[in-house]
Amino acid sequence: FLGGLNNGDLLCCRTKKKYPEHGLVQGQIGTIVEIYNDKVCEIEFYDSNGFTLYLDTFSFDILETLKEQLI
Q1: What is the pLDDT of residues 14-69, one digit of tens each?
Q2: Measured between alpha carbons, how far is 2 from 5 in angstroms, rounded to an integer?
Q3: % helix / strand / coil in the chain, to the nearest 5?
Q4: pTM for the full model?
Q5: Spatial CA neighbour of 31 closest among 58, 6, 4
Q6: What is the rounded CA–CA span in Å between residue 64 and residue 60?
Q7: Nearest to 53 by CA among 71, 32, 36, 30
Q8: What is the chain's Cα-based Rg?
């Protein structure tokens, strides 16, 4: 999932399914802002204006990276 990342890189990802309880649709774009271990990370999801919609810890298995989308 995170092969080739350097310390300090921010990686774009999207959800594989919807999470209506958090206001997230399937494919919602987010940025991994903290990696806690090889199973979970903290992700900030935002709208098209850059405003945070939701920030929480997620399991990598529910995410899909957007190739070549390092910030």
Answers
A1: 999 999 999 899 999 899 888 888 899 999 998 888 889 999 999 989 988 876 55
A2: 6
A3: 10, 50, 40
A4: 0.74
A5: 58
A6: 8
A7: 30
A8: 11
